[in-house]
Amino acid sequence: MSNFRKDEYKKTIEYAKKLLNNNVDMTDIVAKTNLSKEQVKDIMIKKKKS
Predict the structure, then answer these.
(1) Is-contact 16 43, C-beta < 8 A?
(2) Pick from 1, 4, 15, 18: most CB atoms within 10 A?
């Protein structure tokens, strides 16, 4: 992955976390971020652990 792609991916993950903090529905997050459901679930699991 190029540095640009990594940077964009990090921004997308941060955006997804922000949406989760605002109690946005998972399907809406998938639609807005183009992440897969599995990726969003991983973020949710990591967020709960911290």
Answers:
(1) yes
(2) 15
pTM of the shown model? 0.70
Residue 30 tokens, joined:
């998938």
pLDDT 10s digits, 3-14? 888 899 899 999
43: burial class by Cβ within 10 Å (0-12, 13-18, 19+)? buried
How far is residue 4's CA from residue 24's CA, in Å, rounded to a whole number?
A: 27
Q: Are 22 and 5 in contact (CB under 8 A)?
A: no
Question: What letter would DSSP give residue 25?
Answer: -
